[in-house]
Structure to design on (543 residues):
């Protein structure tokens, strides 16, 4: 395993008194991709959101424990009082399970956060937008309709637009929640190839329902059990399709 | 049973345009014949009145100016206050504060307009007895009282519009590193523009037609064009009321109808301006360009 990039210690998350994640300990390596597997409702999304503190946007959510990320060469304690949550969220970009484009044009979806958060001049924003769209192989598809509403793109294109939006902010960690869930086979393959490219530049944490994806791409695999426990799968297990299937069967 | 319900729903929804069209047709029928330059400007040459501000004694022109000034002033006071207060309630207030505030807003919405006028009048009386013996009713006082009257519409529509923006937009903004204030200002408010402008349009309409408030706070029959914020002024709704209540010749009644039609046109014009403004703001938000 590469050196550690995200360390989670004794993390517990509860929504309205109901514990979803219970005393979880986890070390996520640099690069990756690190895959999180688990049944629906086991808390994978919640775990991702605990890393960039997005659970705080839900009323009634209580988080305890420690999450540290290696950002810009330093260790940052995500939940420390001195940590600026906006900076943390920009540095640990997230793409949601279902694409959530803003109701703006394609270009504005990428540019608005750049203008608002980083206060960049217009030409720099344009340049970063083009670069990000090229990074996710969207430029050839939508380069000629940047002024069209983002909602008019296909589901897969929207998903990649969301990824581009996160990339344009130059994060160091990318949290991807089922990036291929709403995609057909071909679009999913595109995203997978993208993951292989991106892992050299970012620490990737990927939630997935696809065993074969984990089997093919993962550097590291964790399985979330019901009741909020987590188990690390050894490399020989997830590299072996049969063994991986056996583990998942037992899970369900 | 279901067919009956459908029929009833159909009838109810047809009723509104039907009543509206009837009203409009009636106004046009009674009002249009009265329209002439003399209706607006009396004996004064129109160009002199419009460009040089020559006094108009026997026409609607001063009342038109008065109404436009009144509505613009009242919305200029009420819109920023109403939107800011709605934003606070929807986004920043604690649940208890929110409940208390929305109770107050409901209470304010329930106050009849004549009471608002009385309040303005009483305020002047108080001022006269205390700090400002020369205080008198006028344009600004009316605008202030009207603003108070329309404030609840603006607050509730802003709050509702913000609350009905999908939660995903909030999350999307937050996960990109926008602060709460930025999420509100750059994403939620623009996304809620449609609803908020609904409130603005309601407020404009209400401010344009109200007679009770201005009756007690500064409107008079023959003040001429509004000349200062503290001076008396004329306004169309009062003019219509006055003509219709005291007419002696059929010509005067016809003038009242013509004036009603003018008021309708002015309100329509203000609505159109509001819609254009909204469209402009929305395009700028969505594409980053102004049209
Ligand atoms: N905002 C919330 N409010 C209340 N409960 C929540 C909230 N978000 C998640 N939960 C609960 O936490 C548990 C885990 O949810 P989570 O979304 O993390 O699951 P998941 O593993 O991502 O599932 P899936 O694979 O279906 O996406 C669920 O039981 C869910 O009901
Ligand atoms: Mg999920």
């Amino acid at each position: 395993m590469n050196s550690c990039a995200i360390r989670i210690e004794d993390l517990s998350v509860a929504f309205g008194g109901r514990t979803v994640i219970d005393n979880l300990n986890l070390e996520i390596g640099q690069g990756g991709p690190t895959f999180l597997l688990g049944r629906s409702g086991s808390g994978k999304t919640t775990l991702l959101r605990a890393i960039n503190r997005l659970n705080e946007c839900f009323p009634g959510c209580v988080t305890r424990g420690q999450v540290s990320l290696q950002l810009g060469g330093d260790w940052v304690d995500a939940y420390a009082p001195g940590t600026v949550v906006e900076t943390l969220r920009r540095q640990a970009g997230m793409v949601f399970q279902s694409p959530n484009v803003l109701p703006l044009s394609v270009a504005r979806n990428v540019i608005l956060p750049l203008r608002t958060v980083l206060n960049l001049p217009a030409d720099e924003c344009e340049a970063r937008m083009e670069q990000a769209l090229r990074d996710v192989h969207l430029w050839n598809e939508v380069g000629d309709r940047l002024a069209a509403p983002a909602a008019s793109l296909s589901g897969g294109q929207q998903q990649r637009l969301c990824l581009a939006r996160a990339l344009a902010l130059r994060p160091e960690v990318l949290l991807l929640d089922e990036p291929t869930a709403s995609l057909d086979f071909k679009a999913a393959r595109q995203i997978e190839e993208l993951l292989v490219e991106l892992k050299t530049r970012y620490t990737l944490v990927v939630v997935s329902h696809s065993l074969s994806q984990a089997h093919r791409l993962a550097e590291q695999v964790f399985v979330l059990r019901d009741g909020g426990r987590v188990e690390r799968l050894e490399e020989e297990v997830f590299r072996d399709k049969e063994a991986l299937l056996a583990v998942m069967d037992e899970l369900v | 049973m279901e067919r009956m319900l459908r029929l009833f729903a159909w009838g109810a929804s047809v009723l509104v345009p039907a009543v509206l069209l009837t009203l409009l047709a009636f106004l046009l029928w009674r009002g249009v014949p009265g329209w002439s330059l003399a209706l607006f400007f009396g004996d004064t040459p129109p160009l002199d009145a419009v460009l040089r501000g020559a006094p108009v004694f026997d026409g609607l022109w001063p009342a038109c100016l008065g109404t436009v000034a009144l509505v613009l002033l009242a919305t200029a006071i009420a819109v920023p206050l109403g939107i800011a207060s709605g934003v606070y309630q929807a986004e920043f207030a604690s649940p208890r504060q929110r409940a208390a505030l929305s109770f107050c807003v409901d209470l304010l919405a329930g106050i009849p307009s004549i009471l608002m006028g009385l309040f303005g009048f009483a305020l002047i009386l108080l001022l006269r007895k205390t700090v400002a013996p020369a205080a008198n009713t006028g344009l600004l006082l009316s605008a202030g009282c009207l603003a108070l009257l329309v404030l609840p519409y603006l607050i509730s529509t802003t709050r509702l519009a913000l609350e009905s923006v999908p939660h995903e937009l909030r999350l999307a903004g937050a996960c990109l590193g926008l602060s709460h204030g930025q999420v509100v200002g750059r994403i939620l408010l623009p996304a809620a523009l449609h609803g908020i402008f609904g409130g603005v349009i309601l407020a404009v309409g209400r401010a344009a037609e109200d007679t009770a408030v201005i009756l007690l706070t500064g409107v008079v029959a023959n003040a001429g064009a509004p000349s200062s914020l503290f001076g008396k002024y004329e306004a169309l709704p009062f003019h219509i009321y006055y003509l219709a209540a005291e007419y002696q010749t059929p010509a005067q009644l016809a003038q009242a109808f013509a004036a009603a039609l003018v008021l309708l046109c002015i309100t329509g014009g203000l609505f159109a301006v509001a819609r254009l403004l909204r469209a402009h703001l929305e395009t700028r938000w969505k594409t980053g360009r102004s049209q």
Remarks:
- The interface with chain B takes residues 52, 54, 57, 86-87, 89-90, 93-94, 96, 100-105, 107-108, 111-113, 116-117, 147, 149, 165-166, 169 of chain A (CB under 8 Å).
- Residues 122-135 of chain A form the longest helix (14 residues).
- The beta strands of chain A are 4-15, 18-29, 34-38, 61-71, 74-77, 92-95, 173-177, 203-207, 220-224, 230-233.
